[in-house]
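hey can u check if this looks right to u? its 149 residues, i copy pasted from the old doc so theres a chance i mangled smth
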Amino acid sequence: MRGAQAQRGWSAVSQPSHVRAEELLAAAHQAAEKAYAPFSGFRVGAAILTRSGKVFTGCNVENSSYGLTNCAERTAIFSAVAAGQLSAEDELEAVAVVNHEGAICSPCGACRQVIFEFGPEATVIFRAHNGQMVELTARDLLPEGFRLR
């Protein structure tokens, strides 16, 4: 762990005791099964934890117009916003990202910015280049992220 994440640690995230990283990862795996990926075949799932303890999931949704494809992380975050359960004031606590192949899967640049918007100190869990699952803050992943508020 690095940066602010190392200082506060996962246990300091205000989370209910029944929601742990393993549970977010399991929810993300279930979400990946629902992905719509007819072009790449690469199914990604994400699970987010809100400050209130609610978990939302999302999967990648591809489109024939490739630029209109939506990533799993953004799908989960946008679902929470649409449900009235996440705002920039009710910050995001954690995001877990997985894929069906167990491949390297860190959030893309667009997802990093969206995660940062809702929780600059949110814990982001993903498989890194060394093959290990890592936990970093959104700020660690996007050191120059910005919010226009």
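Confidence is low (pLDDT under 50) at residues 1-19.
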